[in-house]
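Please, structure for the following, as tokens.
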Amino acid sequence: MEKENTLIKRKKTRQIILGGVKIGGNAPISVQSMTKCNTYDIKDCVSQINALEAYGCEIVRVAVPDKKSAFCLNKIKNKINIPLVADIHFNSELALIALDQGVDGLRINPGNIGGKKKIIEIVKKAEKIKVPLRIGINSGSLEKDLHNKYINKIHLAMVESAIRNIKIVEDAGFHEIKVSLKSPSVLSCILAYRILSEKINYPLHLGITEAGTVFSGTIKSSIGIGILLSEGIGDTIRVSLSGPSIEEVRVGFQILKALNLRNEGIEIVSCPGCGRCEIDVHNIAKEVEEKLSFIKAPIKVAVMGCAVNGPGEAKDADIGIAGSKKEGILFKNGQVVRKVNEKEILDVLISEVKKLEDNKAADQIKIPLSSH
């Protein structure tokens, strides 16, 4: 049977390497996030980054609004394991300091960095030390001439801004770039990325900026990023939420898993509940998701409300539970394994999933046969 993810034909873009993480080409679509603290608070910043890494974050960005923050970048980098990107606005000098501090990547906004001369200055230094750049176009900070030229067609303004600034970078002899076109408008982002994807071959970083709260922002990001990914557009993503950065990473991976573009970690399959439901599906599913959030192996877990349809409806799950009166059933791959006391059903499921992860890990460890 054809795998579902073969239905998505990704555009093969020019590959760049950011601190060891490959972006573009045939590389997996990476998930990024950003710290939400003062960058000069090194302890807090490192703590947030380590927590993000534990949830699977592959690239992290930090805001660099001043020199105090810029001169902390090297100390932060030396205490973390994932690539560090400096996010620069308004002050090109901060970009130069960040490069001297040894960051793995640099994000600049051409619309507010100070013009062509400043961009070229940054590019020359990045080229010298082999650090890739993200040309980050934001609808809220476009060049004035483009903003006036494309009234009510913000997507066209973003595309022209990107093309204009890519040419500046290319003319300076630099090609290690990725590009983003961000707006709070889902439709503007979709239209802009579609057009730009046809015009350039650089990797694209997807995101809906200022998307909103964890609830509304998840919906907007899932629609915008999901539509583009389903069309084969995009090489790395960041879900921007007014909430904990960890939630950005969790949502990012869920978007990729929903499209079968990544399969790491737990995937929860749970019924919505109805009159046949005989267990607290909502809370059990929530607890399972929280307590198994650190599982790395690709495991599909089902939490079903009744034993009548549960195993059949979730037969493609690796493991699952379904409720019944005062007891539930544990099933694997659609086959009932045993009955479980209602009070023990959550603990049994979590224990069995951890065993399944251990078995999957053991299967991956192959001892080669001696040739002698």
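Residues 302 and 320 are 4 Å apart (CA to CA). The first strand starts at residue 16 and ends at 18.
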